[in-house]
Amino acid sequence: MNLNSAARELSLKIVYCGPPLGGKTSNVKALHQAVAPAHRGRLMSLDSGTDRTRFFDMLPMALIVPTPHQAPFTLRLRAFSVPGQLAHATTRKVVLEGVDGVVFVADSRLEETQANAASFSELRAHLTELGRGGRSLPIAMQFNKRDLAEIRSDEELEALATESLEPVFRAVAIRGEGVRETFLAIVAIIWARLDRRGQLSQLLGLNASDAADAIAHSLRWNLTVADCAAASVAQSFDLAREVGP
Ligand SMILES: Nc1nc2c(ncn2[C@@H]2O[C@H](COP(=O)(O)OP(=O)(O)OP(=O)(O)O)[C@@H](O)[C@H]2O)c(=O)[nH]1
Ligand SMILES: [Mg+2]
After folding, report:
1. Distance between CA atoms of 193 and 101, rounded to whole angstroms?
2. 70: CA distance to ligand 2 center in Å?
C-alpha cells in the first residue's frame, strides 16, 4: 500500500496465487479484457515462450475516482499472477512482497484437491516469512473451472464457504465469469482493512463499500458490492464483517 495523501493517490498490489495451471493468468487476462484501454497499461507477461508463467504477469490500472464531498483521488491497482510450477517457489515469494491482498485461484477439479491444499499452505508459509502471517492479509478464494466435469460440487463449496474466514467465489476465468466479482471483492476487503480506524475514509472521502462501488462505476462495470455479495458462495463475502463493530 502506498498512500500519498497530498497528491490524493493510493496504490494497491493484488497478487493471484494458486496451484499450477489453476487459471491465475486467465484471471489477469480477463481483467485486462474487462478494463477499458484508457484505464490500463500494457499486460506484462514475462513468460517462457510457452503458456506457463515463468516469472509473473502484471496488469497496471489507473483510475480517477470521484467522491461526494472531496476532490477525486487517483487509484493505481496492480494485478500480478505468480508462476504455478512447483520449482518457482522463490519467485512466488518475491512477487508477494508488498502485497495488499491475494486472490487464491483454486482448481475446482476433484483431482486437484491436493494441489490446492499444498499451494495454500505454501502461500501461508510465504506470508508468515514475509511478516504478513496470521489472518491480517486479505484473501479472496476463487474456485475456477466451474465449466468442467468432475469438479467439487456446489454443496461442497457451500460447506467450505460457511466454515471459511475468507469469502469464496466461483469462476470460469477463460470466459471472464466471476473474475470481476472476485477482483472487486478483494479491493473492497483491502479498503475495509486499511480503514479499520477510519483514516482512509477520512482522507479520501469514501468508506470501503462506497469506494468499491465508485471504482466499479469508474471502470464502467455494471457491478456493485451487493452484487458481489450475492454472487459469493453462501453469501460468504460480507463487507460488514470486515468493517467490524
Ligand atoms: N475449462 C477451463 N479451462 C480454464 C479455465 N481457466 C483456465 N483454464 C485453462 O487452464 C490452463 C491454465 O490456465 P492459466 O491461466 O495459464 O493458469 P495459471 O494458473 O496461470 O498457470 P501457471 O502460471 O502455469 O501456474 C489453460 O489451458 C487455460 O485455458 C476455466 O475456467 N475453464
Ligand atoms: Mg500463469
Report:
1. 10
2. 39
Residue 243 lies in a domain: no
SS3 content of the chain, % helix, strand, coil (to 5): 45, 25, 35
Q: In this structure, is residue 172 part of a structural domain? A: yes
Question: With a 6 A CB cut-off, is 77 part of the ligand 1 pocket?
Answer: no
> What CA–CA distance (Å, rounded) separates 141 from 237?
10
Nearest-atom number in ligand 1 for the CA of 144 is 31
Q: Would 244 be classed as within a structural domain? A: no
CATH code assigned at 175: 3.40.50.300
- CB-ligand 1 contact for 126 (6 Å cutoff): no
Per-residue pLDDT tens listing for the chain (245 residues): 999 999 999 999 999 999 999 999 999 999 999 999 999 999 998 766 677 888 899 999 999 999 999 999 999 999 999 999 998 999 999 999 999 999 999 999 999 999 999 999 999 999 999 999 988 899 999 999 999 999 999 999 999 999 999 999 999 999 999 999 999 999 999 999 999 988 999 999 999 999 999 999 999 999 999 999 999 999 999 999 886 54
Kindly state the DSSP code that residue 172 receives in the 8-state scheme. B
Q: For residue 6, tell me if it sits in a domain.
A: yes
- Domain assignment of residue 31, given as a range: 2-234
- The number of domains in the chain is 1
